[in-house]
Amino acid sequence: MKLMGVINLDHELDQLNELTYFRAGAAVPFAGRYRLIDFALSNMMSAGVQDIALFVRRKYRSLLDHLGEGRPWDLDRKRGGLFVLPPDWNDPTDISAGDLQHMHNNRDFFDRSTGEYVVHSGSQHLSKVDFCDLATYHKKSGADVTVVYKHIDLPEAEHDPCFRVEVGEDGFVTGIHNEKGHHNVYIDLFIMEKSLFMQQMEYCIAHGDSYFFRDAILKNPNGLKIAAYEYKGYHAVINSVESYYKNSLELLDQEKYNQLFSKDMPVHTKIKYEAPTKYLEGADVRNSLVANGCRIAGEVEGSILFRGVKVEKGAKVINSIIMQKCVIEAGAIVENVILDKDVQLTENRTLVGDSRRPFVIAKRSTI
Amino acid sequence: MKKKEMIAMLLAGGQGKRLKGLTKSLAKPAVYFGGTYRIIDFPLSNCTNSGIDTVGVLTQYEPLVLHSYIGVGSDWDMDRKNGGVFVLPPHERENGSSWYRGTADAISRNLKFIDQYDPEHLLVLSGDHVYKMDYNKLLDYHKEKGADCTISVINVTLEEAPSFGMINTHDDLRIYEFDEKPKQPKSTLASMGVYIFKWDVLRKYLVEDIDKPDSESSHDFGKDVVPKMLEDGLSLYAYPFEGYWRDVGTIPSLWEANMDLLNDEPELNLNDPEWRIYTRNPNEPAQYIAPEAKLKNCMVNEGCTVCGEVERSVLFYGVEVGEGSVITESVIMPEVKIGRNVRIHRAIVDQGKVIPDGTVIGEGREDDSEILLINGDTPY
């Protein structure tokens, strides 16, 4: 069963404030050395998916820089590989709208791929779904489309915008809606046969629709048989600063860390050639995630340090996320703070945010 | 092929016998160093950073790890259309086959490879040393002197001299003698195993040398080719290199060079954006430092999980240090799993070793000057 992948960023809102002023949510750095898109791409890589289209509409400069020709995910292939597809459509008779524009204008991608099934994903839901298992389930169920959900015992604010899946006793979907209290959270992942996908796409365009999932699957005007696949592993939704902060720091729980970075489904990212991190005299690091190339002479607790961060003598970093190449100078203190890349915190400065609403400092600021 | 001004030949076939158990199944240039690198990363990265994009890597002893490690050379930016990195093991020829008999023989046997690029100069490197060097400066010097051969040298003490190939020069650094491991050294200039030759000159010497029977020549640069050039009155110059350079050919020297990196401002800066040391990235997640961990004066790579105490040590990628364990003055190679309440003092632990709970290594010795090697032969 050959799969092809679509990562569709069209309906993802850039709601991470300073972190998404100049980059798409999918390009937001995560867990010390990754960007959010790495997780969806790596899951596809683990399942051997070799034709992947990425539908992007805006703020994709940093994504392009990060993805290149897709080498870290083994997607620099002679045939197929990674296609980053920003809007470039010039057909004056084109009547498609919304994400259907991407699908319609990139028909060639679907037509040329030898994939029989389309795995359609977003980038905001971090998971370790085994797409091969999903495809097998889908085929066995005899459904037209299979949607993936995660049962969340206590839905939180970040789950509010997510769709919910009503599942009947036979494992098929009886309804998809947005009722906040419901536990079965749709994790923005479905699979369907390519030919049916194309057919549904044409139908949606003909009916003036603009959102494939909502208009073809949720509303289900053509009575598709929709199966539900329950996913039980690691899951996080990153759609706000609060959820970003919370889910980042939850990785300091070793069990969660081991789930997300399980050896059998490694997460790949763009390679940087930093030396290992140095802990100097006076370093006091506890309960933290640290990437390479850091130089630590101060105190770090409950935090995530990205690549190349410097924490000078007497500086304190507590419950914070410090992105690539930031410098925390001597005596400076940060607590409950997210520093975007290249921020410099000068000597003896103190920056304290709220533990539920962290303070975010934009890229390249000096404070 | 397009003509190149200079290409490099990197000698990587040596076993490195004095590294004992570390080179059981890999050649010395593949030995790990500095938390994430292999020794060969240094000459390869120096080439990349010096703009040399064509390198032949001569392999012989246990080449599997090296061959798969180098691959197409993309990690060193050497996957090129014109040039790139080429692994050159000994091969069968029309008139028989043999192993590379010496350093010069290894080059002689690859004349066809070098001739493809018709280079003006040939850079000969060794895959045994840890250093950062701009080979372009060496080339400029070589051209300025109009030398047939330029040998890069480093100042050592008179006490160290007997273990190196020593270079004796006139005041203008023109070489008059190559003194291999002299009992009574006459100078303090040691050869770094980095040579630039005028290719047309060297080529003649190699063609001559390759046909000599083994009783007349050991087919070695230091023992045969360079002395012959001196005898013939060719112009050979020494290039004084300043900076960090170490032969990490023994367990103590490998350990010490790793420890050198732990200084606040080490002589060998591995984080210089202008001179990156490239390496195959193992793609491991950020290191996890547990709430009860203590780290001081150490270097730790991605993929490590540290729950114990680590001081004055180097941890390669994927190392686990269990709760209550204390690691001091040690080098822990990739993917070593250290259980709980283990104590390790002044040791090198080889790749993939599993250290059971409660093991004590090297602690409480009366004389702890010896650096212990813990590898597959160690019975736990």
Structure keywords:
heterodimer; A: 367 residues; alpha/beta; Spore Coat Polysaccharide Biosynthesis Protein SpsA, Chain A; UDP N-Acetylglucosamine Acyltransferase, domain 1; 2 domains; seven-stranded mixed β-sheet; five-stranded parallel β-sheet; 9 helices; elongated; B: 380 residues; 8 helices; globular; ADP-Glc_PPase (chain A); glucose-1-phosphate adenylyltransferase activity (chain A); Trimer_LpxA-like_sf (chain A)
Can you offer a commentary on this structure?
The complex is a heterodimer of chains A (367) and B (380). Chain A is an alpha/beta fold and 367 residues long. Chain A is 21% helix and 28% strand. In chain A, strands 5-4-1-6-11-8-12 form a 7-stranded mixed β-sheet, sandwiched between helices. Chain A has a 5-stranded parallel β-sheet with strand order 14-17-20-23-26, with no helix packed on it. Chain A has a 5-stranded parallel β-sheet with strand order 15-18-21-24-27, with no helix packed on it. In chain A, helix 2 links the parallel strand 4 (51-55) and strand 5 (81-85). The longest helix of chain A is centred in the middle third of the chain and has 13 residues, at 194-206. The relative contact order of chain A is 0.13. By secondary structure, chain B is α/β, with parallel strands linked by helices. Chain B is built from 8 helices and 28 strands. In chain B, the strands form 7 sheets. A 7-stranded mixed β-sheet of chain B has the order 5-4-1-6-11-8-12. Chain B has a 5-stranded parallel β-sheet with strand order 14-17-20-23-26, with no helix packed on it. The longest helix of chain B is centred in the middle third of the chain and has 12 residues, at 199-210. Chain B is globular. The A-B interface holds A 31-33, 71-72, 252, 254, 257, 260-261, 266-269, 271, 273-293, 295, 304-305, 308 and B 34-36, 74-75, 262, 264, 270-271, 276-279, 281, 283, 285-302, 305, 310, 314-316.
